[in-house]
Amino acid sequence: MKNIAIFASGGGSNARKIIEYFKDSDLAQVVLVVSNKKDAGVLDIARAHHIPTHLIHRADFYDTKEILAVLDEREIDLIVLAGFLWLVPGYLIEAFPRKIVNIHPALLPLFGGKGMYGAHVHAAVKAAGMKESGITIHYANEQYDAGDIIFQATCALNEEDTPETIAQKVLALEHEYFPRVIERVMSYEL
Q: Is a pLDDT exceeding 70 seen at residue 89?
């Protein structure tokens, strides 16, 4: 059985889908949820599923390697970034090479990088007049949204779409594909 840690900063809808997807799995289970925000909704989701949580502080995350001990204690095999807004530090990338997976709400390399998350991405997609958007699941590296791409899925856009409707279309893709791609990564690469 493989152990997954989910890192998230917000409400946790992707985390919920992942937790539910692996709930009865023989392959993997979510054993830890890490957040950088004490009031993040993802922490409530974890508690409701009886999954331990860990709150990280910026100074500890970047200036110490405290999180490695937490991950080691839980025997983590894969880290899933599900709406985690901090750049992953180099020591964590080195400790988990090609074992940190991120989801981005656009078709990278377009609309990625620092500051490109959530509503900012969808507004940029709309402003550019794109005919499609989608999701990118990729390995994390030491740059925002620049790791090797694992999977992409698209959705068609039309002129009537707003950033909010684009967000709904993209979120539906995230919920549909993210747990399945994580399973594939764990099956073939760990």
A: yes
E strand or H helix at 29: strand 28-35
CA–CA dist 162, 102 (Å, integer): 25
With contact defined as beta carbons under 8 Å apart, do 56 and 36 qualify?
yes
Q: Check residue 188 and give its pLDDT.
A: 80
189 — pLDDT class (breaks 50, 70, 90): low
124's tokens: 């940029």
Strand order in the sheet with 28-35: 53-55, 28-35, 2-8, 78-81, 100-104, 132-139, 149-156
| CA dist., res. 152 & res. 16, Å (int) | 21
Q: What is the DSSP string of 118-174?
A: HHHHHHHHHHTT-SEEEEEEEE--SSTT-SPEEEEEEEE--TT--HHHHHHHHHHHH
- DSSP letter at 54 equals E
Q: Is 104 a residue of the active site?
A: yes
Domain of 76 in residue numbering reads as 2-189
Q: What is the pLDDT of residues 39-52, one digit of tens each?
A: 999 999 999 999 99
Task: Assign residue 152 the CATH number of its domain.
Answer: 3.40.50.170
**Which is catalytic among the residues 49, 54, 57, 104?**
104
pLDDT digits (tens, 9 = 90+) for 74-86: 999 999 999 999 9
Q: What's the total number of domains in the chain? A: 1
Cβ pair 44, 10 in contact under 8 A = no
